[in-house]
Design brief:
By secondary structure, this protein is mainly alpha-helical. Helix content is about 85%, strand content about 0%.
Amino acid sequence: MILPHALIVFLACIALSLVLNLWRLLTAPTLTDRILTLDTMAVNAIALVVAWGIRAGTGLYLEIAVLFSLTGFVGTVAYCKYLLRGSIIE
C-alpha cells in the first residue's frame, strides 16, 4: 500500500513548513506579518494532527484538530483586534 509512505512524506513536508514558518516568524518585518505567520502555523499544526490521526487510525486526533482550529481562530481574531483597537475586551 502507498498510504503509509505518502503519510510519511506528508508529515515531513508539514514539519518542514513549520520550520520555515518559524524562520519567517523570527524575521518578519511587521507585526501583521507575524500574526499571519502564527495563523499559518496553526493551520499547519492542524494538518499535522489530522495526518497523524490518519496514520494512527483513530478519530481522537480529529477532535484535537477541531480544538486547535477553534483556538487558532480565536487567537488570530484577538491579535487582530488588539492590533486595530489596542484593546481586546471592550
